[in-house]
Structure formats: structure tokens, C-alpha cells
From TrEMBL:
Transmembrane segments: none annotated. Signal peptide: none annotated. Coiled coil: none annotated. GO terms for biological process: lipid metabolic process. GO terms for molecular function: hydrolase activity, acting on ester bonds. This is Uncharacterized protein. Gene3D superfamilies: SGNH hydrolase. InterPro entries: SEST-like (IPR037460), SGNH_hydro_sf (IPR036514). It comes from Hyaloscypha variabilis (strain UAMH 11265 / GT02V1 / F) (Meliniomyces variabilis).
């Protein structure tokens, strides 16, 4: 891998979990079937092993001892050495003063350890299991605590890390810690409201479980059998002899210190590449969430070349409409003000920006239309007509007879104000459409009287 690294400016890594027995614990405490007849000797499950003789508790004890050792030993020593190896290799490759940023991502907790459903479920994967080992709260809590302890150690080491001496010394080497655990909140195993099947197939669970893969057919096996006690567990593919171990690259565990069964066959009970590649690793939505988290952290750290967040226009303030009403007896005719807004005022405002214009001067329809706003502001034709005509004209005075008369008002959007103000006092608008005619016979002529106002 190092031969292909080239001279990168940024390296991201997530490592150290299997050194801390994460894989060994998953195998011994979660995936191995438990049965008195089981031929491979994994021992008692976590919740039935008060003396710690089972391989689950033995591997947990190894993890706790390894993580609990002081500086200069145990995990702290090995993790520091890993950082030194990476940085030293980069020092030999980078040009003088070329930046190099190493980011180490800590792990996410794998379980919601507060829910009840998993207390009765097992992820053990073949028909030898009698519904054990169960994912009880205590086991989930212990596993989560180991993850948190490892994360804390990584953060502490990186906080106090000193770049190894090198000649010439490049001052632009930095090592960072990333803590993305919060991004998986609500997306772990055993979340509230999730079913047993969800632990395998729900895309809202962002971690892979151990699912069978039939290399002959290329199909996932979806089997959820139930024991006589009503406990659901995953079954092996039909026809598979589950009494025989299948040798895989996990046969002796990636951690040589892990405790595995001894005897004629020490191979594990995992079947195929699915065990080694996917369980407890992120699914696509999990990778996406992690990637977004990592990119944002690099933005916050002002790493050169990281694209900035796409700019988004601020949410416009909500419009506030104030209607004058008709009680002042100042109003204009709907059709006339509509024509003035659409064909005269708004086309001018789009070109000029804030303006105030008086129309129909010297008539009952005299009106002042005004647009105010910040320097340089020019409305779109759509906004201008929507606020003056759609809002002030059409939404005001809708219930006061007659609807053909409009008293105007103001529409305020942030620091922009549209206004329609009729100028002349008129007959009450309620009488605005009073009219009539009369014809009287006068012997030699007819007398006609026509009256009205508006």
C-alpha cells in the first residue's frame, strides 16, 4: 500500500479496532452459535458466564487489559507507533514544506444499548444455535464502552502527539482526530422500533450484519427461523453442513492474541467472504454520512483544496400585509388601480428601483403608489405585481361591499415596502354603487330622472 501512496497532502484512516479485539469479540460474543453439542468449544455466552470461562468474556478481558495499560505500553504504545510509521514514511516522500495532514477517524458505537428487543435476539448464524448468544443490554454496553475507551485513547494521543524529528524538518505536518460517532445516532443495531429483520436488511441501519452469500447463485439468503422458545435467528443456506468449519482468511483471527477454540479444527464458523468484508462496517448511507462529516471537518480546519459549502440564498422574510380598509372613505376603483400597477408603475419600478408616483391627480381616483427599499434594490416584475396587485389590491377589502372599491395598504418584506394610498375622501364606499332611474308621464312628454354615484 505504501508503494502506491505517492505524495498525498491528506490521508484518512480508521484503524486499531482489531488490535483492540473488536473482531475477536464480535466473533466470540455475537456470531458463534452456542449449544452443548457445539463441536468448536466457544463456551458459555456472556450473560451465562459468571466465572468468565467462555471465550467471549476471555476476549473482552484481553481487550480491557490491552486498552487499560499506561503510556508506553499496550494500545497506547501500538497506536503511537502506527502514527509514527505513517508520518515517518510521509516525511521521506513529501517535498520540503509540502503540507501533509493525517486524519484518524475514531469508531462509532455499534449498538443502542438501552432497548429491549435485542435482549431476546441472537445474531448467531446457524442451526446449531439454541437462540444464543443473546444481545443482552449488558453485552451491548460492554462493547460500546470498549469503543468509547479506544476513541478516548486515540483522541488523547493525537492531542499530545509530537511529529517525529526529521532533517530537514517540514513544519506543515499535522495529525488530527475525528469523532463521527454522533452521525450514527438512530442508525445502529438494536434501535428502538426496529425488528429483527431490520438488523440485516433495513437501510436505516447503517452497519452490515453477517448475511449469507451463496457464491453459486449470487443471491442473498433471507431466512429468519424461530427456535422452539420463539427466538429468531439467522439460518445457514439450505444444504450447508453446519457441523463442519469452513476455513477462511479469518481462520486464526487478524489479531494473533485473540482466544480461539483449540482442538482438531480451530477454524471459525463463518462461511465465505461476507464475514471478513462486511459485518460491523458501514453500509452506503453510513459511508455517505461519514464522508460528509469528514469533509466538513476539513473545511473547519481550512484544509487547502476542500470545496466550500454550496452557498444557499437566505430565507426571505415573511411578508406582512396591513390593509387601510374603507372606513376613511378613501378608495380607488379596482380595475383602474390594477391597470396602473400592471402597465405603468411596476414596469417603471423594475427599471428604476424604489420610486413613488401619483396617478389620476385632480380626480376622485387620485392615488400614490410607492416602493421603498435599500440602495440598489430593483424588484422583479413578478414580485412587484404580486405584492401590489396580488396582496394589497386583491387580499384587502374582500368582504366589504362593494368589492370593486379598494382602500389600499402596505406590504412589508424585510426592508422593502410596497404601498398603495388613495388620496381623496369620497362618498362612503358602501353607497358607491347606488344608482337608479325613473320615468314620469307628463301628458305631452315623459320626464326621465337618472341618478347615482360611485
Amino acid at each position: 500500500m505504501t508503494e502506491k501512496a505517492g505524495q498525498p497532502d491528506i490521508v484518512w484512516g480508521m484503524f486499531g479496532g482489531n488490535n483492540a479485539f473488536f473482531g475477536a469479540i464480535a466473533r466470540a460474543c455475537i456470531y458463534q452459535p452456542i449449544s452443548p453439542e457445539h463441536p468448536f468449544g466457544w463456551g458459555l455466552p456472556w450473560d451465562e458466564d459468571p466465572t468468565g470461562t467462555g471465550l467471549c468474556k476471555q476476549n473482552i478481558k484481553l481487550a480491557e487489559t490491552y486498552l487499560g495499560q499506561p503510556a508506553g505500553s499496550g494500545y497506547r504504545k501500538d497506536f503511537t507507533k502506527a502514527l509514527n510509521d505513517i508520518v515517518t514514511f510521509a516525511q521521506g516522500k513529501q517535498a520540503l514544506n509540502q503540507p501533509f495532514d493525517l486524519y484518524v477517524s475514531s469508531y462509532v458505537q455499534f449498538f443502542d444499548n438501552t432497548t429491549d428487543g435485542c435482549d431476546g435476539w441472537t445474531f448467531a448464524h446457524d442451526r446449531l444455535s439454541t437462540g444464543k448468544p443473546k444481545l443482552v443490554k449488558g453485552l451491548r454496553t460492554v462493547i460500546n464502552e470498549n469503543v468509547q475507551q479506544l476513541n478516548s485513547i486515540q483522541a488523547d494521543i493525537i492531542k499530545n502527539y509530537q511529529i517525529p524529528a526529521h532533517t530537514p524538518m517540514n513544519p506543515n505536518f499535522r495529525v488530527h482526530n475525528s469523532q463521527p460517532d454522533s452521525t450514527f445516532q438512530g442508525h445502529r443495531f438494536c434501535e428502538q422500533g426496529h425488528t429483527f429483520e431490520d438488523q440485516y436488511y433495513n437501510q436505516d441501519v447503517w452497519l452490515w450484519n453477517l448475511q449469507y452469500y451463496d457464491e453459486k447463485t449470487g443471491s442473498e439468503e433471507v431466512g429468519v427461523p424461530t427456535t422452539t422458545g420463539g427466538v429468531e435467528f439467522m439460518a445457514a443456506p439450505p444444504g450447508l453442513d453446519v457441523t463442519q468449519g469452513f476455513e477462511t482468511v479469518m481462520g486464526d483471527d487478524t489479531n494473533p492474541a485473540a482466544v480461539i477454540p483449540q482442538g482438531d479444527d480451530v477454524n471459525t464458523q463463518q462461511y465465505g467472504f461476507g464475514w471478513t468484508a462486511r459485518p460491523f462496517h458501514p453500509k452506503y448511507p453510513g459511508h455517505t454520512a461519514l464522508a460528509n462529516f469528514f469533509i466538513q471537518q476539513m473545511r473547519n480546519d481550512n484544509i487547502p483544496g476542500v470545496k466550500p459549502t454550496a452557498s444557499t440564498a437566505p430565507t426571505p422574510p415573511a411578508p406582512t400585509l396591513v390593509c387601510n380598509g374603507l372606513t376613511s372613505n378613501k378608495y380607488v376603483t379596482h380595475d383602474l388601480i390594477k391597470d396602473t400597477i400592471s402597465n405603468t408603475f411596476c414596469p417603471a419600478a423594475v427599471k428604476q428601483g424604489p420610486i413613488s408616483q401619483r396617478y389620476n391627480q385632480g380626480t376622485p381616483e387620485e392615488v400614490v403608489i410607492t416602493l421603498t427599499g435599500p440602495n440598489g434594490f430593483k424588484p422583479s416584475l413578478t414580485d412587484c405585481t404580486n405584492y401590489l396587485l396580488g396582496a394589497i389590491t386583491e387580499e384587502c377589502d374582500t368582504s366589504s361591499p362593494p368589492p370593486n372599491y379598494k382602500g389600499g395598504g402596505t406590504e412589508t418584506i424585510g426592508n422593502v415596502v410596497y404601498s398603495i394610498q388613495p388620496q381623496n375622501v369620497r362618498q362612503p364606499a358602501a353607497k358607491g354603487l347606488q344608482y337608479g332611474c325613473d320615468s314620469t308621464y307628463k301628458v305631452v312628454f315623459n320626464e326621465y330622472t337618472v341618478w347615482g354615484h360611485g
